[in-house]
Specification:
The protein is an alpha/beta fold and 413 residues long. It has three domains: 116 residues, ATPase, nucleotide binding domain (Nucleotidyltransferase, domain 5, 2-Layer Sandwich); 135 residues; 136 residues, no CATH class. The protein is 58% helix and 9% strand. The protein contains 19 helices and seven strands. The strands form two sheets. Strands 3-2-1-4-5 form a five-stranded mixed beta sheet. A hairpin with a 2-residue loop joins strand 6 and strand 7. The protein is globular.
Amino acid sequence: MHATCGIDWAEDHHDVAVVDSEARLLGKLRISDDAAGFQDLLRLLAEHGDRSDDPIPVAIETSRGLLVAYLRASGRRVYAINPMAVARYRDRHAVSRKKSDHQDAVVLANILRTDAALHRPLPSDSDLVKAIAVLARAQQDAVWDRTRAHNRLRSHLREYYPAILEAFAGKRERLLAREARAILAIAPTPGEAAQLSHARLRSAVTRAGRQRRIAAETDRLLEVFRRTWLRQPAVVEKAMGRQTLALLAQLDAACQACDDLARDAEELFLQHPDAEIITSFPGLATLTGARLLAEIGDDRARFSRAGDLKAYAGSAPVTRQSGKSRHVAHRRVKNSRLAATGRHWAFAALTASPGAHAHYNRRRDNGDRYHAALRNLFNRMLGQLHHCLTNHQEFDEAIAFGQRTRSPLTAAA
């Protein structure tokens, strides 16, 4: 590389440094976070040999934002360097531990000058995958927000309203069920719940979408609400009911965001040519496939080997060895979104694929715990996915697991 560029990113300005192959500082500049600042950056790069057919590579501490988007659109290689890695490189140039934005920009430029081969440039994903990633990650964030909102509401209800928790204790969705939220909206206190008429409660249950056994469910709920429960003082109970309505509004908003974003993410995902291959795998539905594609992208040069993808997902183990000591453990530094999606995928594959179930059972028989066996299954199926995407072919159970796909009943017959 004849020259490399480092950018120390900040919220409203960015420090830029350009160095040559001998580590000499060619130029430095502080630019604003707008179109004018980007033009200043391009002029600085052009002064030091930047050309359309040979653009100067750039190292920066983030992979997102308008500046990164414009740098990628210019056709140059952009390297997102972890700030923790930058801190360790900083000690190579100064032992005094001094720090400045300009110095960090120089460190970033020198990282590319010396160790560019050890770092990955940002992938050249299509715009469609980038859009899918925005929606899939937002939907995943909304799911986590929904879980937090549910836990806050449940914790609050335990202090004064055990009847509503008892009424939906046997439901899979608990307070996330539409019936539970509909009842809380009209009866945020146990006193109001006990005074509900059969007709009003039946209307709420019907409005929530229930279509079968409406009368029986209404009778069951009334019986629970009219039992004798411990109660807070009336004025305190009323105040806590007002807080419940506020928490319920947050939960309703999170549930609506989950549904809307899931629908939009699935619609975009089905437009991608890789969607048919991804959803051919057992346990991968449309939304889970969208999350998976959002994290691995469609740049085939990004993961040249299946092992690279497995390490990125955290499914491949990591070995720490020194002398006679050797320890193999699961990776903690990974793409957390991809790892979370992998757990859901592996769990769903247990009932969707005989081969996956047999592989999981073998791992458990060999001493793996539940999560370790699921992670191993995810690791294997991730390698299969890498092969299918690389060779443009759909999943085949017989090829993926061979003769091991036979169920115990079939083998016994």
